[in-house]
Amino acid sequence: MAAVLEFDGVSKRYRSFFARQERWALRDFSVKIEAGEIVGFLGPNGAGKTTAIHIALGLCSATRGSGKLLGHSLGDASARKRIGFLSETPAFYHQKARDVLRFCGALNGVREPELSQRANDLLEAVGLTVDSNRNIGKFSRGMLQRIGVAQALMNDPDLLILDEPTSALDPISRLQVRQVLLDARTNGKTVFLSSHQLSEVELVCDRVVFVRAGQVIASGKMNELTESASEFEIVAEGLAAAPDFAREAHSQNGRWTFIVDKQHQQQAMEKIWTAGGRVVSVTPRTRNLEDHFVQLMRPSSPPDRMQQ
Amino acid sequence: MIPLLLLARSFVRQNRWLLVAFVLWPFLLGAFTWSPQHGANKVEVMEIVQQEVFYGVAVVAFLASSAVYNEKRSRRIIAVLSKGISRGQYLCGLLLACSAFAAIYFAAVAGSVIWLVGTSAPTLAACVCLFAQGFSAAFWAAALSLLFAAFLHPFLAAAIAGSAAFAPLAMSKPNAVIGSAATLMNSAGGLATNLVWPALVAALLEGGAFTFVAIRIFASRDVTMNIE
User: Could you give the ipTM of this predicted complex?
Assistant: First the structure.
């Protein structure tokens, strides 16, 4: 499948000339986003997510490495016409909400009558039809965020790059934005979503890329990460002690609860039955995205090359 | 061309209150010299116009020098440059906005002169020259400011552009090509009825050249220094 966005060994160094300090925001950063995917881009603050997005859009240049954006070099203006981008802190010229959308659409080459039609449709999609004639200078942060999402969709983009799209939103607005993302997936759009809202990412993304200290430390398909049960919690009664390979074993009211790895599951059952015990329940323990994130982002944890 | 016009319109709109003050300024100054019985003294009007030309060029240079910096600081530059427009179009949009400021201001200055002195043929000719030469000098200063603002702090850029524009005034007769802006400011402020064509053409060509170099420099600069 064709790569819509590709970073190939991109590094970015920020240097303060007078202080003679330097900092690498990205180091040998390589990621490939294919058409039709919704990819979550996860990492702690300072991991380099926003820098990577800014390099893709040509807002800053890479110190080393290269990449492709919709078949052009990173930051190419003609490629940007086919992209919808929402920045972490959206800022626009202070004008009416409808005019902001028309301005952003026109900069990407959308012309009348499509311009007005799309502006109206998107204002409705993000729940701002009533406020369409209000100056955005008087908007709350959440309303600005929703206008930001709407302007990113004005040109019916092939690739949506969203940096924290739901960070300032209330639950209802978050649902609206989630629906917009799901609609984008239905329409075959590619979405690159940087977010700290892990539950959001878990709900909409097909794949996630974990970034730490400017490097990709892991990536994987969402269903593989969250659905594969590698551990089981077993509750049994009538046992004198838990099997020796069990973990986190504890006993309460004559019932033993313990964790076993997938490969020990059958062995554990046999041991319980042989010892004259009874299995009460066997529950697969799935790890959610937050568990993966916390494990990967611990300073002590080594880079995990899940799917690289 | 449409992105340039859109950018310029948005920039002017964003700074509309400054523009309103800019337009009212010549009329407010003129009101001090005008009396209902005698109208205005032409010598006094010339002195005021000379000052207004200098102020106009200085303010436009300062506006241009701070334009990129303010857009970066407000983060609006990210919203604009993430769209399908090039760095060159962006910079030209800002220059167009500054030029629109200059055009409106010098039209207001010319309007105030007509109000104070009357609509005789020499006055109208002087006003046309005032507008054309004042605008050209401001365009030259704005382009030079943008060039330095592409890689320097705006105050430094404004100081350099201002020095380049005003330093030749120290000479009794500035060179029309090297000191084109100074020549134009002198001629416009003196309400001359003839255009100084060599200085006017030189200012426009030099302004174009400054813009070209500014675009080359700006294209290689990071517009965001955000380290998360």
Answer: 0.85
